[in-house]
Design a protein that fits this description.
Length: 822
């Protein structure tokens, strides 16, 4: 290429295609194209509405794919993404997990990668047009690991992979023991003079070499391979330490045996190091398997087959073949296969396995049922409404798996230390050798040389260091905690939610539907002179007809019970937090609270005293106005949920301040508050005002506690109270039932029982306590034993024993959490 006096610049542009969501017309296409072209580094961009894809060329030196995605999203459109879940094999410790996470995150097309050592899973969010799952698996293999995709029978594939891996660990362990035990007995017996002069023959060293070599290079080969791949990728893991420690002992012994150097033979030390660590890894693998017992139990709840009516015939088909709209026949004692609605029959259904509710729930025509629950009494015909990944059980399993795969804030310290741990140990080992060799020489008459002693102490440091315990401390406890929660009907959306719940200092309870049943009924009707109670109720019910508000439903239900004729209405209008109005039979009818009537300046017709009396009895008084004057008061009362009084008493015993928040008037709120004995009542709060009240509480300093800030947990409906739940430090959505995915709160309770809040906070506290115990053990183990080894107090075989069982002890402590009384 000719050079016309300037510098030649070669730009390697990349052509990329992104799948776009949210486009509905040609204007959308133009908007996406225009926004992409505005970015520096993009010359051409073509957006296709039919394929819903944008193809463009970008200059990687000027911008990345993330910049393009951000621009598209800022324009109001989205990017279609896929999610891959892979089982990762050959992870040695948490540094391996972080290294693989970094490798996957750096791939073009990968938006997010999360690798968890405890679950041995990788979750990858990616753009399907830029990278495929096959390419993800190739990247995992290139990083030195094996992967298995979670397909339709994910739990079966995972179980087989786990069993195969454990079986391989067991096989290598048995081989290691076959060679190591006789080697150890012979070596120790010879050194202690138990076998006589014959054991000191030249052949004995060759015999020990023959026993040690299979252990070193067959049983321990994984550590060499793992260590090499780790170093090749610019990091160091546990495999590096084990391979170095055992190799030093083995090759030093070989050199001594060949009489290149004088000294002692340590073949048994090399073999014992590898075999003991194999013992630890085998026990750790078995223990880790139990941390996911809850997920396995949930998966085991599913029915294997379903009895379906097709073409008028009853046929039994695999669960996977059920489709939305199928009519299922469920006999007494059988599991309901999928989520659905009852179309024929009456029965009681045991939902305890999902909601934690001990009593069976009555089901009749039109009522929803949850897949995997048990039909107790009658024959049910159920229309399938949600199948596969859409069922409540599938959503619960995914929520638990997501929580188990997330990182708790408390884990950050362990991550920071783990990243620098192995390099630091290598430095300490080198310093140990140098100090013992150069500063503390032994006299020539000593049984071992200065070099040998320095080498032995260095090997002890290499072998005793354990990054695994730090990596397992948090995730294993989180797995057990979230699993226990799921079994009790408590779903933590992330490990952060699990950690935060236990820090709560103030619990804010929404009254309706949380403390009370949320199904109020009409208790009193008081009318003005010349008005009939049924007539007032009929007018009010006509306005409230079809209302979704609990008070409106109660008025409408009472009129239905009394078989009153309801008129058609026109001009319906609703004022949030005030009431409703409409025209009925030519009359303007308003149903609402005192605030609404005062603002409209309607005369109360001496009904104010009656209203106050009803409110003092913990009843909500709704005023009914006709043509500009109040003609009656309809009192509606809500009843307390079973367990509300007990739950609030327990929360107070735990040292928490309990606050009730409600839109009801002060008198009604105080009457309910007195029944349940809350610490504080915030009444007459409009729906939008709940957020402000939560903010005020967050800024208060609780008198009986000493934290720097007030940690507020808001308990309420996952949909209606969503803004307040989001504002709170810990949002707890209660009684969501099958709609577990609707509530975006950190904690979701399947049942409406307020005692679930108590259990959630207790479980959080117990889990965090376990995490702290694990971290303490993991840190104190290394803080005490690494210096002890460096000072020569621990020999390499004892170091291997300690290292092998340090991570086992952490996992076992996490499993001990299962025995906690919640």
């Amino acid at each position: 290429m000719p050079n016309y006096g300037g510098n030649i610049i070669t730009v390697n542009k990349k052509q990329l295609t992104l799948p776009i969501t949210g486009m509905t017309c040609a204007n959308c296409v133009a908007a996406v194209e225009r926004n992409i072209k505005k970015l520096d580094g993009i010359d051409t961009a073509v957006v296709n509405l039919s394929s819903e894809r944008a193809t463009f060329e970008l200059d990687p030196s000027l911008l990345g794919v993330d910049d393009v995605i951000a621009r598209i999203e800022r324009a109001g459109y989205g990017i279609a993404t896929g999610e891959a879940e892979l089982i990762i094999q050959r992870l040695s410790d948490d540094s391996d997990a972080r290294r693989l996470e970094k490798t996957l995150s750096e791939l073009d097309g990968v938006l997010e990668a999360n690798v968890t050592f405890a679950t041995e899973k990788a979750r990858v969010k990616y753009i399907p047009t830029l990278i495929t799952q096959a390419e993800l698996r190739c990247a995992v293999k290139s990083a030195g690991f094996d992967s298995l995709e979670l397909g339709g029978d994910a739990e079966d594939a995972e179980a087989k992979a786990r069993a195969k891996e454990t079986a391989e660990q067991k096989r290598l362990l048995i081989i290691g023991l076959i060679f190591t035990i006789p080697l150890f007995i012979f070596s120790m017996g010879r050194d202690m003079g138990m076998f006589g002069a014959w054991s000191h023959g030249v052949w004995s060293n060759w015999f020990m070499l023959a026993l040690a070599t299979p252990v070193q290079f067959y049983v321990g080969w994984q550590y060499y391979v793992g260590g090499y791949k780790s170093l090749r990728n610019g990091s160091a893991n546990m495999d590096v330490l084990v391979a170095m420690g055992s190799s030093v002992a083995y090759f030093y012994s070989l050199i001594v045996m060949l009489e290149i150097l004088p000294g002692h033979i340590y073949f048994e030390t090399a073999a014992v190091i590898i075999t003991l660590i194999r013992v630890g890894k085998f026990l750790e693998a078995r223990a880790k398997g139990h941390t996911s017992d809850a997920i396995k139990k949930l998966m085991g709840l599913r029915a294997k087959t379903a009895r379906v009516i097709r073409d008028g015939q009853e046929v039994e088909i695999p669960l996977e073949d059920v489709v939305t709209g199928d009519i299922l026949l469920v006999k007494p004692g059988e599991k309901i296969p999928v989520d659905g609605v009852v179309v024929d029959g009456n029965s009681s259904v045991d939902e305890s396995m999902l909601t934690g509710e001990s009593l069976p729930v009555e089901k009749k025509i039109g009522e929803p049922v949850i897949g995997a629950t048990l039909n107790k009494m009658g024959l049910l015909k159920v229309e399938a409404t949600k199948v596969g990944k859409e069922t409540a059980l599938a959503q619960i399993i995914k929520l638990v798996e997501d929580a188990q795969g997330s990182k708790a804030p408390i884990q950050q310290l362990a991550d920071q230390v783990s990243a620098k741990f192995v390099p630091a140990v290598l430095v300490i080992a080198a310093l140990t050798f140098s100090v013992w060799y150069f500063l503390f020489p032994l006299p020539l008459t000593s049984e071992i040389s200065t070099f040998t002693r320095a080498l032995v102490n260095m090997v002890a440091v290499l072998v005793i260091a354990c990054p695994c315990a730090m990596g397992l401390a948090t995730p294993t406890a989180v797995m057990v905690g979230t699993g226990m929660g799921a079994e009790m009907g408590i779903l933590f959306r992330s490990s952060e939610g699990l950690e935060s719940a236990g820090k709560t200092t103030t619990v804010v309870l929404d009254k309706t539907g949380t403390i009370t049943k949320g199904q109020p009924a009409v208790t009193d009707i008081v009318v003005a002179d010349k008005w009939d109670a049924d007539a007032v109720l009929a007018l009010a019910a006509s306005v409230e007809k079809g209302s979704e508000h609990p008070l409106g439903e109660a008025i409408w239900a009472e009129a239905t019970v009394r078989e009153l004729a309801l008129a058609d209405l026109t001009g319906f209008s609703a004022q949030a937090g005030h009431g409703v109005s409409a025209e009925v039979d030519g009359k303007k009818v308003s149903v609402g609270n005192l605030r609404m009537m005062n603002e409209a300046e309607y005369p109360l017709n001496n009904l104010e005293a009656e209203m106050k009396r009803l409110q003092s009895e913990a009843k909500t008084a709704m005023l009914v106005a006709v043509d500009g004057e109040v003609v009656g008061v309809i009192a509606v009362a809500d009843t307390l949920k079973d367990g509300s009084v007990e739950a609030i008493a327990e929360l107070k015993e735990m040292g928490l301040e309990v606050v009730m928040i409600t839109g009801d008037n002060q008198a009604t709120a105080e009457a309910i508050g007195a029944q349940v004995d809350v610490d504080k009542i915030i009444a007459e709060v409009l729906p939008a005002g709940k957020v402000d009240e939560v903010k005020k509480l967050q800024n208060l300093q609780p008198s009986h506690l000493k934290p720097s800030t007030n940690i507020v947990a808001m308990v309420g409906d996952g949909v209606n109270d969503a803004p307040a739940l989001a504002q709170a430090d810990v949002g707890i959505a209660i009684g969501t039932g099958t709609d577990v995915a609707m509530a975006a709160a950190p904690v979701t309770l399947m049942s409406g029982d307020l005692r679930g809040v108590v259990r959630a906070i207790k479980l959080s506290r117990k889990t965090v306590k376990t995490i702290k115990q694990n971290l303490f053990w993991a840190f104190i183990y290394n803080i005490i034993l690494i210096p002890a080894s460096a000072m020569g107090f621990i020999n390499p075989m004892l170091a291997a024993f300690a290292m092998a069982f340090s991570s086992v002890s952490v996992v076992s402590n996490s499993l001990w959490l299962k025995r906690a009384k919640i």
